[in-house]
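Standup notes
- DV: blocked on the single-chain target, sequence here:
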Amino acid sequence: MSISVKDLTYIYNPGMPGETKALDGVSFDVADGTVLGIIGHTGSGKSTLLQHLNGLIRPTSGEVYIGDVCITEKDVKMTEIRRRVGLVFQYPEYQLFEETVAKDVAFGPHNLGLSEEEIDRRVKEAIELVGLDYDEIKDVSPFELSGGMKRRAAIAGVIAMEPEILILDEPTAGLDPAAHRDILSMIRRIHDEMNIILIFVSHNMSDIVEMSDRVIVMNEGKIVLDGTPREVFSRAEELYGMGLSVPPAREIIELIKSKTVGFESEALTIDEAAADIKNHLEAARA
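- DV (later): unblocked, structure below
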């Protein structure tokens, strides 16, 4: 499975006074198994791009390929595409609606016309994969769960569709630190066990560094940077100029570099920063 986006452009309210170009000639490819992080200031086009990747929005121009299928063609079956591409919106727990967790997770598979045996298998596996105990939670109302558990249950509903691509929009937004860490661990486990393309948007740069193989930076509807986390966050001044931040460890390193002659570091994590600072101090004392 792969994704190929070719010269994608989308205009809101075309021909109207409020006409806005949300995407402007966006092109990129994503290989199978990749974890792609997408960052950008509010209004940069991130969410609009995500909605093109499973056919919720049709482009003004350009093409999106999922595998060898061009999903921007008019006659494509979108139900099949949305089975293959799972999209989890920000605060997905607001979309829970069934009387039990198991019934909520089963909603998507039921719509695929699967057998009851297959639906039961998918529901159990999806609930376990997001780190919940199936036997303990299957008959519980989703509205009785904690915030973090609600989010897991909502994501399980998408996982039960067994997508080949999973897209997450701000998956840790609004969670306390413990739930935040749990959701990141869950996302990593989903990717490792399902071996799928995983795309996620986040304003938390530490999450982007921790999770991503590759990072795309969007600004004013365009891709302006594309590379590994280390390559992208080495361009700190450019990111600041777009109203973005860098991981906290990188901020510390940039401050030290600006005030310390001879100090060099490309650290992105606290552990890397600590090691480089230690090495510099030891070298200075030698």
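- Follow-up: The chain has a mean pLDDT of 92.
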